[in-house]
Puromycin-sensitive aminopeptidase (Thelohanellus kitauei), 683 residues
Amino acid sequence: MSTYLLAFVAGDFTHISKAGSSGTTYSVYAQINRADHLKHSLFACEAFVDFYTDFFKVPYPLEKLDLIAVPTTFVLAMENWGLITFRDDLLFYDPKITSSSPLRWNTLVIAHEIAHQWFGNLVTMKWWTDIWLNEGFAHWIMYAAVDKVFPSLKIWKHFYLENYAIGLELDSYVASHPIEMDAQLPSILFDVFDAITYSKGSSLIHYMCSFVGHQDIQKGLGEYMLKFQYGNVSTLDLWECLEKASNKPVSKLIGSFTKQTGYPLLHVVHETSPGDSSKMTFKIRQERYLLNADKKGALQTWVTPIDVDCVHESTAIKSHILLEKESYEFVVDSKKGLKYVLLNPKRTGFFRVYYSESLYAMLFTHLKELSFEDRFGLLSDYYSFARSGLIGTDRYLDLIMRFVEIKEEDEEIWKVIIKSMNEIQSLIFFSSHFQRIYHKFGELYLKVMSPILSQYDFTGDKFDYDESRLILVSTLMKVLLHYDQKLRDKLLSWFDEYTQKKLKVLPDFRECMFRACYTSRPHFDQLLKYYESAETSEEKIEILQAASSATDPSIIKQVYEFSISKHMIPQYGMFIYETFFSNPLSYEIGWDFFKSHVKEVLDFYVVPFFRSKTIAHLFSQFVFVEKYHECLDFVKSYPSIGFNQCIKVSFESIEIRSRWFKTQEQTIIKWLENLDLKKVLAH
């Protein structure tokens, strides 16, 4: 047993327990007297152990498994063998208090940590170079476990935004690193606990399942657990077990993705085959994809398994190709009425696809026919291409309008649209024309989102639709409250009644209500008082996350002061900073605040990883290269921040945003000025 997996906890805790059918005793501990709200975690604990025991065919080896909520910790959770520690908000669930997002995330975290009782604890990597064997696999299989135990959460749908897209994003920076990273120096250990290890790692396992097969993956993992239990392993040991189970060259097929930094961009073009007009020849060329197009390096290639869907009027032909070199060609029969050709259907492959304009036109024409995963993938890729300069940002905005035309109502798609629009708006915030065109953003949001919102009849405490509709409505409300006075007034009236205990607001609407309070000085003052008296961590976290809605500079400054005050629990600070910096008003004021209060901030947030991550998130929002040098001087002046991986990525982000602004400012402004919403909404 590795020494890092040993834990002792002393304190006055309440708990609930259950004896499992296998003889293991399961318990959940917490300081707060909310024992009834621990039942979900206790049920999940036993159910996940049963799932993993069945999946790996290797039983949980200990007599007990305790989950405990620790009052002060900067990490989400730690998989100590038999005594798993969690941040204090992660183990509570009350349907009257807990909203959809925390329920989903908290359940995933429990599944992740219990997976470590096998991945990491029973079988441990030889060295931190192979940490992805712990984290990547646990991050993938947690989705499989939650999907089995709680199918109503539809958890795989959230995998794409919360993992796949995040892994692709970080790995498109020059400053990224390989999954199998040489971690010989203690100073770089924090760097390996990032989205490459977790999100890219889990996405590659998902990719591997698509061409190895789920049954063979399960069989190979079972053999791996049985063979190496109570031992130490490397990535090659896993490949050998999977290759034996599947009789496929797993190391060859996935090794180029784990050993190299980055991933491929596939350029796809087509032409009529010479001598046969009924056939089309498709040509694929691969290169490393980088957001910072100015920093292209040496040619890289990957061994890339690719699924291809050729969809005709009356049939769909599925095929599989293996791209082993820089380029590849294949032929498609076009005489049957070809509608479109789609590479990487269901988005299992860890790469992006850049089609010729004519191929994109075919896909966009049939956008409504595509699966959620494929619509998500097209949207995500296209936005990334706009940021990198492969396409003009106006083309991406046109695609958003295409989603409006088909009356898109998937909440995950709308999250991508809103996030990208907020980033475009924050970019144009620095334009000298911003005041002139600001109302265009409001007009766009109101005319596009209000009709969707108006379809649903709801009050603060009543919503007679399914959970996905609830998430969609709350997602749109968070945006529209800034532009719709009636909606904002409604939310503020809810808050007045809520604090007087005259109204029970639905958990998914509660953060919207708190966000509205940041737009009103009287309600903001009342909100701070309410924060002090809030009885649950769920409410406190939502109040902090809502801070990004503040627009009054005096309120923004007060929030920053609050973040290092005696009222703030240090591990909750991330909930302010992670959302607050997305507001351009907030990060300009925040930069001044950090420079003038640097000692207080560093003393308050003592964990190095949290310090550097927070500072990096702030840096990454800047637009002008001049800030690059200012930020660099700041980091050099305070060595305790560290010049680690996330800081390097943030500096690269400044360069990317600067180039994006310089090349696309006028394009975005022109698109907004020429937008004919009546024409779009008429479809």
